[in-house]
C-alpha cells in the first residue's frame, strides 16, 4: 500500500490506506465468526464465542512471528486445503449424492446473476492490497510476468472452487445454514473438512491481521516519517487490533450474513475507483517506474502531499457509482430501472480508468523523468 503514495501523494493516500485497514478488519471479524461456527459445528460443547477466541489466538500467534511463519503456514495449508476440498466435492457428489431435482432448483433472475458476478469481481479486487503487501518482499530478479500469473492464478483458483462448493451445498440445503450443510453432506469426512476449514481460516486471518497492522503502521509513518517500527510495535498493534476484532465478531455474529453482505457492498464501492487508478497508473502511466525514496518522505518527494487529480478521479468514481448502487439501505434510480441489479463497479471502472489516464499521463511523464 506504500505505492499508493505515488498516486495520491503522502497525505492523499491516507484515506485509501485507512479504507484498506477497514477492509482487513471486516474480513478478519467475519472470518472469526466462521471459525467459531466451524469449531462449534464439529464439537458442540465449544460455543461459537469460545471458537471465535480460539481462532483469534491462532491468528495472533502466527502474526506475532511475522511474514516467514505466515508464508510457511499458508504454503502447507494451500496443499492440505486443496486436497480436502477435492475430497469434499467427491464425497458430496458420489457418496452423499445430489437431490434428483438439483438442476431444477431455484431460478434465474438478472439482479441475482449480476449480484453474484459483483461479489466474484470484488473478491478479486479485494486481493490487491494483499498482493501489494506480499510483493514488497519479492527479489528484484523475479519477473513481473511470473509474479502476476502466480498471484492471479492463486487468487482465482483459491476463490473459484470454494465458491462452487458453497453454491453446491447452498442449493441442496433447506435451512440455509451453510456450515451445518457441509457437515451433513460430507458425512464421515465432515470432521476433517471442518478442522481443515478452521485451520485455513486461521491462516487467512493471520494474513488479514498482519496486512492490517502493516497498513496501520504505514499510516503512522505518514505523519512520523523518521519512525521505524520494529517487531514490538507490530505485536502491540496486533494485540489491540485482534481485541477489537473479537468484540466485533462476538456482537455481530447474530446478523452475520446481513452484516457481511453490506460490508462486501461497501468495499465494492470504495475499492473499485482505487483499483482503477492503481492499475492504470502502474501499467499505462508510470509503467512501474516509481521513486521509492519519495514514498518514505513526509512531503511525498516528487509526488507531493496531495495529487489533486488522483483524488478527483477517486471521488468521481464513487459519485458515478451512486445511481447504480443497490443495497438494503439505498437503491439508486439506475439500479431500480435494472430491477435491482448492481452494476456500479462496472460504471466506476469504465469511467475512472480513462479519466485518470488522460488527466495524469503528462504529470507522470515529468515524474518518471525525475526517477530516471
TrEMBL record:
Main location: membrane
Chain ranges passing through the membrane: 12-34, 46-70, 76-95, 107-126, 146-174, 181-201, 231-251, 263-285, 306-331, 343-360
Pfam family, one: Transp_cyt_pur
This protein's record includes keyword NAD: no
Keywords: Membrane, Transmembrane, Transmembrane helix, Transport
Topology with respect to the bilayer: Multi-pass membrane protein
GO molecular function annotation: transmembrane transporter activity
Subcellular location: Membrane
Any one annotated GO CC term: plasma membrane
This protein's record includes keyword Transmembrane: yes
Database matches in InterPro entries: Pur-cyt_permease, Pur-cyt_permease_Fcy2/21/22
Family per similarity comment: Belongs to the purine-cytosine permease (2.A.39) family.
Alphabetical list of PANTHER family matching this protein: PURINE-CYTOSINE PERMEASE FCY2-RELATED
The name this protein goes by in its record: Putative hydroxymethylpyrimidine transporter CytX
Amino acid at each position: 500500500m506504500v505505492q499508493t503514495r505515488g498516486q495520491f501523494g503522502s497525505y492523499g493516500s491516507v484515506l485509501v490506506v485507512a479504507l484498506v485497514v477497514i477492509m482487513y478488519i471486516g474480513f478478519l471479524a467475519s472470518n472469526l465468526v466462521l471459525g467459531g461456527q466451524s469449531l462449534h459445528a464439529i464439537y458442540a460443547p465449544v460455543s461459537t464465542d469460545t471458537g471465535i477466541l480460539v481462532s483469534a489466538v491462532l491468528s495472533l500467534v502466527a502474526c506475532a512471528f511475522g511474514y516467514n511463519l505466515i508464508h510457511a503456514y499458508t504454503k502447507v495449508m494451500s496443499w492440505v486445503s486443496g486436497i480436502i476440498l477435492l475430497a469434499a466435492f467427491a464425497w458430496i457428489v458420489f457418496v452423499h449424492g445430489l437431490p434428483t431435482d438439483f438442476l431444477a432448483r431455484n431460478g434465474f433472475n438478472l439482479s441475482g446473476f449480476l449480484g453474484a458476478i459483483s461479489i466474484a469481481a470484488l473478491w478479486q479486487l479485494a486481493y490487491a492490497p494483499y498482493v501489494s503487501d506480499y510483493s514488497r518482499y519479492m527479489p528484484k530478479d523475479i519477473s513481473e510476468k511470473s509474479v502476476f500469473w502466480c498471484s492471479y492464478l492463486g487468487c482465482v483458483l483459491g476463490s473459484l472452487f470454494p465458491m462452487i462448493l458453497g453454491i453446491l451445498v447452498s442449493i441442496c440445503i433447506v435451512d440455509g445454514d451453510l456450515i451445518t450443510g457441509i457437515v451433513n453432506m460430507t458425512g464421515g469426512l465432515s470432521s476433517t473438512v471442518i478442522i481443515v476449514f478452521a485451520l485455513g481460516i486461521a491462516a487467512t486471518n493471520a494474513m488479514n491481521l498482519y496486512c492490517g497492522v502493516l497498513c496501520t503502521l504505514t499510516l503512522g509513518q505518514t505523519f512520523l516519517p523518521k519512525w521505524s517500527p520494529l517487531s514490538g510495535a507490530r505485536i502491540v498493534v496486533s494485540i489491540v487490533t485482534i481485541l477489537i476484532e473479537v468484540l466485533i465478531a462476538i456482537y455481530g455474529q447474530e446478523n452475520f450474513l446481513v452484516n457481511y453482505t453490506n460490508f462486501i457492498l461497501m468495499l465494492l464501492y470504495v475499492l473499485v475507483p482505487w483499483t482503477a487508478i492503481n492499475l492504470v497508473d502502474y501499467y499505462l502511466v508510470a509503467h512501474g517506474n516509481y521513486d521509492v525514496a519519495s514514498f518514505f518522505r513526509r512531503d511525498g518527494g516528487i509526488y507531493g502531499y496531495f495529487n489533486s487529480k488522483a483524488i478527483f478521479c477517486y471521488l468521481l468514481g464513487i459519485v458515478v457509482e451512486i445511481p447504480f448502487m443497490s443495497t438494503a439501505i439505498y437503491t439508486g434510480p439506475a439500479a431500480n430501472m435494472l430491477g435491482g441489479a448492481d452494476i456500479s463497479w462496472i460504471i466506476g471502472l469504465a469511467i475512472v480508468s480513462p479519466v485518470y489516464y488522460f488527466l495524469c499521463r503528462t504529470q507522470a511523464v515529468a515524474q518518471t523523468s525525475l526517477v530516471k
